[in-house]
Amino acid sequence: xxxxxxxxxxxxxxxHADAIDLARLVMxxxxxxxxxxxxxxxxxxxxxxxRGDLLxxxxxxxxxxxLRGEKSVLHVDPGLDSRAAMAKSLGxxxxxxxxxxxxxxxxxxxxxxxxxxxxxxxxLPGRVGDSPIPGHGLYVDPEVGGAVATGTGxxxxxxxxxxxAVEAMRRGASPLGAVKEVLERLDAAYSLEPEHQVGLIVxxxxxxxxxxxxxxxxxxxVADDEGVHLExxxxxxRPGPKESQP
Length: 246
What we know:
The protein is of the alpha+beta class. The chain folds into three domains: 9-46, no CATH class; 57-90, no CATH class; 100-236, 4-Layer Sandwich (Glutamine Phosphoribosylpyrophosphate, subunit 1, domain 1), CATH 3.60.20. It has helices spanning 19-29, 37-46, 57-67, 83-90, 153-159, 161-170, 175-189, and strands at residues 9-11, 34-36, 100-105, 111-116, 138-141, 145-151, 198-204, 209-213, 220-224, 227-231, 235-236. A five-stranded mixed sheet has the order 5-6-7-8-11, with helices on one face. It has a two-stranded parallel sheet with strand order 1-2. Strand 7 and strand 8 form a beta hairpin. Helix 5 (153-159) crosses helix 7 (175-189) and helix 6 (161-170) packs across helix 7 (175-189).
């Protein structure tokens, strides 16, 4: 995403691993914003992108164990047909996943953002989270700045989390202030459960930045003129007993 008018996304890919590359092609070569499922795979074929098996042997073995009823990881009954039952099952265990959100500013001051994930483990077929939806997992407005989110996508989607962060900066908030507003809105909108986690990175158009999370365990990698380094979040909504807040 470069701006509200210049963004692209794909979701529910079946046989193409390079989701961000494909999303960029949607942005650059089509009049659309989101392509999904078989249509997205067909578009990837037309662009010459190679197909492949997206399931590693390790993941395949864990999935097959899940189908047999093993609960060594986050367990959702394949036969679930009610939202309440799904919520109960999702609450049994929380397993970290691999959303990657990136915000960058080039030498000319142009900001771009990208977000990619394999999604919640053992989700119901058809589930789409926040990552591919502009304004939810990622939002960039070159007049203001950008934001990316990771964690429990359903929470972020309910408040349009990344859009909310950018709008907070449009109203005059600092990146840290924007982070706090989003996480506090989550706290007000939901009954947060122990397995819920959301991490947020916010960057203003001139380059100032901040990050935060519902709970500890989230970190941001920064690459700048000083090199590459890890930064702890400036704000944690529910810190541990030995953590303090700015």
